[in-house]
Structures are given as C-alpha cells and as structure tokens.
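I hope you will forgive my troubling you with a question about protein structure. The matter concerns a single protein, recorded as an amino acid sequence and a row of backbone structure tokens. Please examine both parts with care and let me know of anything in them that strikes you as inconsistent. Here, with my thanks, is the record as I have it:
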Amino acid sequence: MKNIVNDLRLIYKCCVMYYEQGLSQQQIADRMDISRVSVSRMLQAGKESGIVQIQVFSPNHLNYGEIEQQLEKKLGLKEVVVVESSPLATAYDQMSALGSAAVNLIENYIHNGDVIGVSMGYTLHNVCRTKRMNQEAIRCTFVPVLGGIRSISSTITDVHSNQIAIGLAQLYGGDYIEFFSPAMFSNIEILRGFMAERSMREVLESYEHMNTVIMGIGTPKRSSPTMMNAGYITQNQMDFYVKRGAVGDLAMQFFDINGRTEPFNDFNRRVAGLQLADIRRIRNKICIASGSDKAEAVYGAVKGEFVNIIVVDEECAEALLNIQGGEK
C-alpha cells in the first residue's frame, strides 16, 4: 500500500483544507478517510517540504519592539509605543496610526472610577475621533488640566480642553467635567482670585484624585503652533521664549531641553489649571507626539518628569534616541 504521508499531492490537499479552508484535523481525517495521526504527519510534512510557510507579523507590521525597549531604558520610561511613519503615507494616515495606538494604550491605564486629566491640541482631537475596538464603557471622568474657554480671536474650537474632555468621555463611555475658565490670565493675582471662587471647587477637587493625564505636546519651533492659533500667545512672545531656551510646552507651559521651567515662570504661572510641578505627582503621564521636530520637546518633558509614557511615530522615536542631552 502506498504511504500517503509521503504523497506530495495529498499533503498539499491536506494543508489547503487545514490552513485555507479552516477544517479541523478530525474533519480532514473523516473527509480523506485516513487517521487523524496521518493528518498530523502530513501537516508537519507540509512545513518541512516548504509547501506551508508561516510568517509572524507584529501588530504594527514592523518590529518596533527593540526601539521601544531602547527608549524605555535610555529615558527611564514606564512604557513606549512606536508606530510607523512612512514617507509614502499621508499626514492623515500617520495621525490615524498614532490615534489608534494611543486609544489602545490609554485603555490599559484607565479604569472605572478614575479621574483622568486632559490637555488641548490637534493630536488629542485626532485621538477623540479614532474608533475603539472594545465597546465596553469605562466609567471614568475626564477633566481638563487647563482652562477651556477660547479667546475671542480664536477661530478653532474642537482642540480646546473642554472639547477634548467631552470627546474622550464619549469615546470611552465615561463622564466629564468642564473647566469654564480662560486658559490664560493677564495677571496672576486675578487668576488666584478666580481659582478661589466656589464655582472652581469641583475642578480643583478632581485634581486631587487624578491618577492619569493624557497630553499632546507643543513645540515653539513648529510653524503655527496651537497656542498661537488659539490666540493665547503672539509670535513675538513665542520668539522671546525660544531665545530663553523653550523647546516645548505641556498644558500651555514652557520648559527647556532639561525640563526646567524657571525661565518661563512669568508666562507659565498665568495658565489656569494644573502647574507642571503638580503634573509630576500624577502616576501615569501619557504624551502623544509625531515627527522628528517634536523629539526635543518630548525629551525635555521626560527630563522634567512631566511625562513617563509616550506614544510616538518612528521619526520621533529615532530622533529621541539620537538626542545626547546635557546643558544647552
């Protein structure tokens, strides 16, 4: 009797039924009128002969595990997620990839009953518009970490912190608290008086229970930053802080490459909301960024301990690995 286990035609037929048609080994055995052991042997022969070739792909289609580990080690980060940044992809494609990765990561860090801080910006606006695979609601509360009323000169609304809080609450099935305040005050004494008002109590109390904060990051060197588009700062002011060493801003507060905020206190202290020093104490500080031009901003934010979890594209990740740090 012919040894069917060595018959390449039957091996091929067996492999097609198992790998392409999804039949079980027992179903194949019944259909071919052979033993299940023979089916198992033919499937193994299919691999050994090259009829079946199995490839394993990472979820992002590229293996970024090594660069993620390198960044975690170099910067002392809690977690790093890197997504593809292809020169052939459109800006929309890249933002979509970043948004999807951020949505999935955020879901690992938020739980029922949590209070989650959010900042402002186009990056977080994009996250709000990203679809979630898991439809189960997470009953947490999203709260702006800075004021959310736009200035009169601003023509944008969806990137403000209140809209981000609403958008994320809708995405995850949670609740939100709105922060009805200008993001920036002209006088620090007026700001202190405003924050002492009873109407601010709910927001301030929520800050005490905040265990995660989700932030986009700005850079004064990128053209048309969100802060300028929203009317919170002029080009001359921005140039002034760049000369002082500003490489980025979180929640509209500047810092330098080493995470120092002192040169920008005159501006930062007039921002209504959580100060960067308060953000340091929060357990999970998530930052989402793309592009090599954001690398110095992310680096400074990490050095200042304002960020310990990042979601970045490949360009930003590579640039972060190349930053040497040190005084500037």
In short: The mean pLDDT is 88. The domain at 65-322 is CATH 3.40.50.1360 (Rossmann fold).
